[in-house]
């Protein structure tokens, strides 16, 4: 799941970053921020679920437009899209649960089926699901659609495990973390398919991050550590901004090195 080192020319063509440890760290923190930020805007700011969904949905569409228009991987733009799609994907599930009364078990099943359909159509059209080949608008469109569904699926699965199955946030985080570890071991030790392992881990990091976010932010009476949605969101946002700043610097250095050759 950790990609090999790319040359600057290859790196500039692909719209998705290298799958390294930093990729997974930012992704997991983005899922946590998605969970806590949605709760913060909805409840702490008093926006309500509908207004929060409309605002974040509009902001997501605007950022996604510029991401799709770009001709290369730009760390700030790419990870801003991931962060917003995390919040919006969370709100899709929250709306289904709170406004329409859809059970979390059903949401989990429906999103899982939708994701399989997207993967099936994507593969039939492009012949690959590899994120190392996101070099056309069509492939990038399939990529972001799949990402959106993984966040909604992960939110439903995480809430279902922690609340519906009454596992609690710590046990849910442990369960999903163990599944991620097992998939990683399968990739490195058993040489399991890299594309399959990537998407499995990508899906699992959403409920893992959501469970960790709830564990940190929820009050102790609810099984959390009581940091609150504000404290948790700020903590992880600062970490994300720092890592994106480092990635932006590294991309610029790679571009300068490529020009000097």
UniProtKB/TrEMBL annotation:
The chain crosses the membrane at residues 45-66, 73-92, 104-122, 142-162, 168-189, 196-216, 228-249. The keyword rRNA-binding does not apply. InterPro entries: DUF347. Keywords: Membrane, Transmembrane, Transmembrane helix. This is Integral membrane protein. It comes from Enterobacter lignolyticus (strain SCF1).
């Amino acid at each position: 799941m950790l990609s090999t080192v790319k040359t600057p020319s290859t790196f500039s063509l692909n719209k998705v970053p290298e799958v390294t440890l930093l990729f997974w760290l930012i992704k997991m923190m983005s899922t946590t921020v998605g969970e806590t930020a949605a709760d913060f805007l909805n409840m702490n700011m008093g926006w309500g679920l509908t207004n929060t969904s409309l605002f974040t949905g509009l902001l997501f569409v605007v950022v996604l437009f510029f991401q799709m228009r770009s001709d290369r991987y730009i760390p700030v733009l790419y990870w801003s899209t991931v962060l917003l799609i995390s919040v919006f994907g969370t709100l899709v599930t929250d709306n289904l649960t709170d406004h329409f009364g859809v059970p979390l078990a059903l949401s989990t099943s429906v999103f899982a089926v939708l994701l399989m359909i997207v993967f099936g159509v994507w593969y039939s059209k492009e012949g690959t699901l590899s994120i190392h080949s996101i070099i056309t608008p069509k492939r990038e469109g399939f990529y972001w659609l799949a990402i959106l569904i993984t966040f909604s699926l992960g939110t439903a699965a995480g809430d279902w495990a922690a609340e519906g199955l009454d596992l609690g946030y710590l046990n849910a985080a442990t369960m999903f973390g163990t599944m991620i570890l097992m998939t990683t071991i399968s990739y490195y030790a058993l040489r399991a398919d890299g594309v399959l392992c990537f998407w499995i881990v990508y899906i699992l990091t959403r409920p893992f991050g959501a469970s960790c976010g709830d564990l940190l932010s929820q009050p102790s009476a609810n099984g959390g550590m009581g940091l609150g949605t504000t404290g948790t969101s700020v903590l992880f946002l600062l970490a994300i901004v720092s890592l994106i700043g480092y990635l932006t610097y590294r991309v610029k250095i790679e571009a300068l090195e490529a020009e000097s050759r």
